[in-house]
Fold these 2 entries.
Entry 1:
Amino acid sequence: MRAVVMENYGGPEVLEVKDVPEPELHRAHRRIEVTRAGVNFADLHVRDNSYLAGVPLPYVPGNEVAGKIDGERVVALTGGGGYAEVAQARRLTTFSIPDDIDDDTALALALQGQSAWHLLNTVLRLQPKETVIVPAAAGGLGSLAVQLAKRLDAHVVAMASTDEKRALARDLGADAVVDSTSETLASDLKEAADGGANAALEMTGGDTLHATMAALAPLGRMAVYGGVSGVETLVSTRDLMSLGKSVQGFWLPLLYGQRNALSSAMEDLFSAVRSSEIQVSSVTVYPLSEAGRAHEDLAARRTTGKVALDPSR
């Protein structure tokens, strides 16, 4: 089969398409003929060896796929191996795609949709009328988080880096938009949140994390799910105590072993699509042979919505 193989850590150039044997099927896993492989920021961290969990080399990246099992359409969260014509996933993290949902939509809901859902509902426990800050609001996860937060009747302050992306966030329902590259980000966020937000998502680290933290109201809470800046960021315990703010980390694989957590969220996401409460932005699809370019474009924030690879090309 064709697969993207990393034999070294490094830049996008280490992603090479090769002919390799199909993976040996593990216990309680299912073989999937892949039609789409999702590309996520986590894959960039895997590639340069800065991910939360190390991977052995050589390695086939990719943590989510859409495809078929014996003709049945499925979407699945994988433990790597997604950038290939054939992958495998645990039964607990494999979900049937309903007839009224297309593969691209299902793929967008798998990792990024599940992450957005659990960040808002499981971690932040967002309540109606609360104000929440959403970063990268035109991206795959951020665009879904904006809509899911509005579905919970929250006030959404969206962050994005360009006029076009901020306009998209507005179209998705954001109540206020802020330039994420602003030199006065903390005060901009605080003003947009009418003095302070109750909750915030954070995936950048460094100055952006501190600015977002400063924009939280007393007793505000933050969910950290990434660190795309690559900066290891310290949080002052004095600041946490003096204003009662809280910070909780989140990593979706922590839920992979919980029987109902993922399936319940997936069903709710499918329901939200059917009711038009959320809309999935068009998926940007690259040939498998251009995985490196997909990584470059994602890192440079040149994409909006979901990014995927097509193993047939």
Entry 2:
Amino acid sequence: MAPAMSRQAVRRWGNSLGIRLPVAIAREAHLQEDQAIELTVVEEGVLIRPVRRRLSLAERLASYEPMAAEPTEAMAWQPVGAEVTP
């Protein structure tokens, strides 16, 4: 499938400039209404990217699945040196 393409005019929007994204372009770029985006100036123009939401520590821990061969203890060996209690 060929990428969607459209020509649009840059319009004044208050003290800024704005463009309209046709629905076909927005769908193909996985953009949705009120979604946070990041704008970057590149050599050929402006790159528009969705901002990826950062997971909280609780969300990251909840999604963690240890590998089958992964040890379950932090220290799977005997204490050495100053760790040894008399």
